[in-house]
## 1
Amino acid sequence: MLRLKKVVASACLLIGLTAVGLVAQSSDDKQRVSTLTNNLVCTCGCANIIVASCDCGQAAEMRKEVAAFVQAGKTDAEIYEAFEKKYGPAVLGAPKLQGFNILAWVLPFVGLAAGAVLVIVVVKRLRPSIPEPETAEAKPPEIDEKYRRLLEEELREE
Amino acid sequence: MIELGQYCLFGALVLSAYGMVIGALAGMRRSLPLARSAENAAIAAFAILAVSSIVLWYLLLTDQFAVEYVAQYSAAKMPTVYKFTAFWGGQSGSLLLWALVLALFSYAVVAGNRYRNRDLMPYTVSVLMGILLFFTVLLNFATNPFKLLPQVPPDGHGLNPLLQNPYMVIHPPALYLGYIGLSVPFAFAVAALMSGKLDTSWIRTTRRWTLVSWVFLTFGITLGGMWAYEELGWGGYWAWDPVENASLMPWLIATAFLHSVMITEKKGMLRIWNFILVLLAFGLSIFGTFITRSGVISSVHSFALSNLGPFFIIFLASTTIFTVAWLFYRSPQLRSEQRMKSFLSREASFLLNNWLFLSICFAVFWGTVFPILSEAVTGEKITVSAPFFNSVSLPLGLALLILTGVCPLIAWRKASIRNFRRNFLYPLAAGLLTGCVGLLLGVRSLVPLVFFSACGFVLATIVFEFYKGARARQVIRPTGFLTALKDLSLMNKRRYGGFVIHAGVVLVFFGIVASSFFRIEENFNVRQNEFFKIGDYTLAFKGLSQRSDPEKDVVMARLDVLKDGRKIDELQPEKHFHHKSEQPMTEVSIRPTLKEDLYVVLAGWDEQGVVSFHVFVNPMVQWIWIGIGIMVLGGLFVMFPDTKPLAQAGRKSEEEAKDVAA
């Protein structure tokens, strides 16, 4: 069983590494334009639809601008900055990691962590203070029997 | 006629106020005559709101433009079906629909509980009538659908052309049925708190209501997504628009609630927690209605702008304070009846489920309200949209998907490491295999590979569970495998219907990940008879043409779709110019297949005959709809009423099982 675990673990790692390598290779200009236009929001007023897919003249114009910037060799950061200057901060699809807006990113995960703490506290509190004697672990063939009983119990409870 | 509608609205207000007060009084005095009186008020409120609604429908269908609402949302030449649905096209009409459905549900609750739940019923009716009172106050004083215009216009504005769509006939009512359905469990919960009858009877009674609401919410949200996909022309089905988020949040909480009630029912744990969840679900459904109808957060859906804000805030705040105060007062009586054995027990796994659903809900809520907050604090208008929600929901979604596979396999009380390993070995292998298949098929990025593996894993756990269950049944009762499978599923519909829903969830995840990570989109500018290529397809532009009908002018493009040199289809994307609206509307042409959708938008044209197209290849989108279809079917299966012979069969096999055990 332990060997199987090792094999699984190394296979996962291998797959992961290959995947990362392949992703790195395939990024070119077109990919960049796509990523950039997916992170910018069209300001045409048709609600927050990303530039890459908004169906209006303004978005088409903005897509051209992005492509021109990419061709001119600007970095992503420069392009975002230029857009922010021209269209205002609302053009960025997600708040920047800056000042008050950091909260937008941090709080969901603070919520997640707080929830985790709460779950742990609840489980701890609901656990009996005196540990019950461990039931002896059944041998594999008996587990099917155990499963069957559990299932029956489960079905009865309905 | 108009006066009749108005009087009825006022009558509904009086009746709901009466029902609320008398219901509460009946509960306190334990008086049956008073309780019956409150119940009759609820029934009368439904009848009178039905009259009021019929009047509005009549006004819409007979083009009475003297009424502001009719003039705003209907027009003489509009097709009859949309005159009918214009009822919920605007704010006051959709609030009337809310009130009507709530009254109908109250009626159903009263009719179904004439001799049951007598301790709870007076308070339940009181709470339901309290909610109805809020909506009738809005209808009478803030946004009256029967308000007259000072001058009768010759024709109405007409319903927004975007809403003149079959999806929009069903989407709002489906969503409303879901939202409003959540009022019933909420009313019973509050009734349990007020009456002090704190056992699980409120949960048992409202189990089906919660499930029905959940099915309607699922269905309604999906219809909205399909509508966006086919009507808005931006190639996607979910924009994380505030209104979409507002519909997602009650769904998330209702889903958490559906899971956690099982622990309470079976083990008597987490009782306070369920009260909190049902309050949250109800509050968020009101919040959702508020966001949709107030336009607080600018959004595509703000078809109706108005100033309902203060009303909603007061209602939400007072409801929350009222409920939390009662909860606080009763909390000493709400301690858990049983202890939890370990972190590896099913109780704990349900907690994990709730934790994730709530975390996702919180993240969505936070992202939705953050722009307002940020503007208030920094004075700068910022955007929180798809890029934010996608990055935040990605890890949470993955965790949720994996737990969908893991949690159901953990046994009640305590699972041992050994059976853990036995349960998960094959599914893990299946997951890994899925990943490898993905890799072989050319999936080269990590995140989708991880998701696909997780999908394979979860699906395998579900199949494995059905298989093991059926085999175990065969041991008790030697029948064919399929019969065993059928018996098994019918004997515990909640468990196995739940698994079916989970299988649907897996497909939805699969479709969402595939369509978000592997979508191709490109813009093409072409002349007549020119070709262009996208994905595996070659498209030939055959020309533009024009037609007109009384409502609009239509420009359409004809395209031939070729694959491997053979013509396989024709597409006709259009642009509609409605006479009554300034913005042209895009009518997308989609070629859906199980593998991918070819999605063509006619973007524009110039005088030189150059026509531009915005073309998408969206992989696996159909699987999302299929997955949701399976989820809805699973939900219906869970609700499916027990048939007598089967129940007997169940009892019999229980006895047999006891014999075996003995």
## 2
Amino acid sequence: MTGQEEGVLSGRSDFQAIASWIRPDSTVLDLGCGDGLLLKYLEQTRNARGYGIDIADANVLACVKNGVNVIQSDLERGLAGFDAGSFDCVILSQTLQAVRRTEEILLEMLRVGREAIVSFPNFGRWDLRLQIALGRMPISPELPYEWYNTPNVHLFTIADFESFCEEHHIRVIERVALNRGRPVRTFANFFGSLAVYRFEKRH
Amino acid sequence: MEPRSVGAVRAQTLHFFEPLAFRSGTVLDSYDLVYETYGTLNAAKSNAVLACHALNAAHHVAGYYTEAPDNIGWWDNMIGPGKPVDTEKFFVVGVNNVGGCFGSTGPKSVNPKSGKPYGSSFPVVTVEDWVDAQARLADRLGIASFAAVMGGSLGAMQALQWTIGYPDRIRNAIVVAAAPKLSAQNIAFNEVARQAITTDPDFHGGDYYEHGVVPRRGLRLARMIGHITYLSDDAMMEKFGRALRSDSIQFHFDVDFEIESYLRHQGDKFSEYFDANTYLLITRALDYFDPAAAHDNDLSRAFAAARARFLVVSFTSDWRFAPPRAREIVKALLDNRCDVSYAEIDAPHGHDAFLLDDARYHALVRAYFDGIFERL
């Protein structure tokens, strides 16, 4: 198995964690929905009513092929077409690191959704730290790109995200760190390859 | 013959005796609808698709006529065997709307009461009236519910109206290059077109038939102004630029530039086959379409009854019905939790893009219809 294929598979490992946090019959908005398979999974397992948002023509087509609702739109321009509190949950799966206007998107998620879920590759995992210590930009199944062709612009660690939430009055409801698909019990920022957070505005 | 064409087709006519009540208050006691069909209606009668025409087209959607092999249907690139709307899977219906000039009862038809063409006495029609008449046609064809109703521009408005007026009789709406209502600028262009026609000395208040003339100059101008709005600035510049007909400018007011020649040609062609009264009626139907008006201008409430799934498509260079207009529709559908997918196709051609070959656009419609077929 190549790093790229492994990345795709481990990329799906957050689906179960996300689905377990979606209440049955919820309305869900999936930002950067890609081929729409997460939405399809949530529709099948949670009877969710979902819409995806994606900018890429190929992803819009893939969603239509997968029978998933998709709205072609640029996330970087915000969620202006969506009313406040109009979704039970807004999801951003493995896309946050590729978004330019990180703060705006996270706050928009909490405007439109009563709750939000993000998953992201943890840049604090030990093997990535090691690669940097050895003087190279890290490559892993979750971050399979070279420095010159990566779509990622904001790489961050679990600790970074936690402090972001603290500073932005975001209350973390649940969190899980996965190491190649399996939950990490201790030292999440050291052993976790992927982190999944469910959060809301602090009241 | 193009291998993936539905081939030679024939128009059919149905006569309707049940009176049709128009929104304007007028009643048409009886009327004809001319239509074409492609493909085969399945035993469950569940695979019917209605293709709604826009301003200047009609029931001839796909294929050609044996007696006129160059007369190819207006959406032939979309509909046919193996095409995005596959006639080996779907039974496609095209109909000339009431008020039209291609065989369905319209202003140039003879009013049985007077023995003369309706002319100025033909009722002002609305999109809602058209859809009512289309529903009558569906009844006669034994189609209780359409698998899909599809259209571009004004045709898209008819698809939208189906979801509002007959929510139980449409399962999917394909809404292309659409707006939920015209803007002031849109109405302004229509008004210029209508003024061109009604101020033509040959118009005779709409009863030109009995004078043996047609307001050709007006119709020609109406088509020229309309045509400008169908193309993007870039597409026009690319196609014509400032190219001249001769080697140099001639210091006169006749044709110098290629674009002038093109527009005149389009206008001339159009004025030979299209009826001026129908042009007035159709532009008015465009102006009046505004499903939100009956709901305090709240488009979301207008779609409260809609049950269909929607595919909404816009084109980036369409300045007549620009993408933000399509997003108004999408927003209203989202508010009602309707199933909707929306694509913004990066195409350079302007409003006319909905009629043209575009790989991304056609792949999307194909994928969407594959899904419809799976759910039949």
